[in-house]
Predict the structure.
Amino acid sequence: MEDRTQHEQASPAVQKRGQDSFELQGLMPHLGARLTHIGPGRVHIVLPARPEVTQQHGYVHGGATSAIADSAGGYAALTLFDEDSEVLTVEYKINLLAPAAGDHLEAIGTVLKPGRTLTVCQLEVYGVLPDGAHKLVANDQQTLVRVNRPAA
């Protein structure tokens, strides 16, 4: 059975908040990553495979793979919190299951257990081939802490 949250969209205000926050990051734009879906408790981030993000064998580097997974989980959690809250990663454990090959990578962050203080997310990263086929290249579990938004 397909998860209904896979295609459900967050409210326009939550989408704007997530997109605005994403654009403030230095690393994601540097890598060429972009948000492609913001839903309640679920976010997708796409990273085009380009020479600048590869390792010596031509696969997308594990650091880039990990970075988009981490951000996908953080933004998935952020969709469930009020506008005065932010999230920070406490820890994550990633398994690199296969070489990260394909036209692009797609990281999907899904909230497993939201909490007042700690939130746990599941992260999956797929290599997407030119024909659209998806291959799981990494999976991850992440714990985030909710913090108050810093004063401007």
About this structure: The radius of gyration is 15 Å. The beta strands are 34-39, 42-48, 85-96, 104-113, 118-128, 134-148. The chain has three helices and six strands. The longest strand covers residues 134-148.
